[in-house]
Amino acid sequence: MDSQEEPTVVCSNCDRAIAESKSFLHEAYCFRNIIRCSKCNEPINKNEVDAHDKENHNLVPCKYCRKDFEAKVLGNHVENCPEKPKFCQFCKCEISSEEYLDHIYQCGSRTRQCTFCNKSILVRGTVGHFEWMTDVYRP
């Protein structure tokens, strides 16, 4: 028995591919119950317009920059927001974007004592110093 897929047609209302044998019934249902969103042109159930608007088109402020974004794009914005705090590589504190460069300079300018040579080294030079020291003391 040869199992071939039935030919499909694209619904002129919702743009979905529908089995050709079911297209008449689908379109009859679709034109009665499915409309296009006026904002994003997505096909949505007539009874779910309010829920669709709330989920996708309500404006929600970014917690970092306070600019309003549609709910559906807010997550992507928050991840890439220029005002998003950054973590200091030296003290692991969360620092606002506007204070970050000054903080890194000051925080990295502190000194620590090297456990190998007992010299005071800048925090921002710790990694390089330890790498150099482990190479020097490697047998």
Keywords:
Herpes Virus-1, elongated, 20% strand, alpha+beta, 10 strands, single chain, 139 residues, two-stranded antiparallel ribbon
- Briefly note the structural class of the backbone: alpha+beta
Named CATH architecture of the largest domain: 2-Layer Sandwich
What is the residue-averaged pLDDT?
88
Helix content: 25-40%
Name of the CATH class of the largest domain = Alpha Beta
User: How far apart lie the N and C ends?
Assistant: 74 Å
Order of helices and strands: EEHEEHEEHEEHEEH
> Would you tell me which CATH topology of the largest domain applies?
Herpes Virus-1
Can you tell me the residue ranges where pLDDT is under 50 for at least 5 consecutive residues? Answer: none
Largest sheet: 2 strands, antiparallel
Portion in beta strands = 15-25%
Tell me the radius of gyration.
30 Å
Number of strands: 10
| Shape category | elongated
Distinct helical segment count: 5
How many structural domains does the protein architecture include? 3
Order of the strands making up the biggest sheet: 1-2
Tell me what you see in this structure.
- The chain is of the alpha+beta class and 139 residues long.
- The protein folds into 3 domains: 8-36, no CATH class; 48-83, no CATH class; 86-136, Herpes Virus-1, CATH 3.30.40.
- Helix content is 37%, strand content 20%.
- It is built from 5 helices and 10 strands, in the order E-E-H-E-E-H-E-E-H-E-E-H-E-E-H.
- A two-stranded antiparallel ribbon has the order 1-2. Strands 3-4 form a two-stranded antiparallel ribbon.
- Strand 5 (59-61) and strand 6 form a beta hairpin.
- The termini are far apart.
- The model has no long low-confidence stretch (mean pLDDT 88).
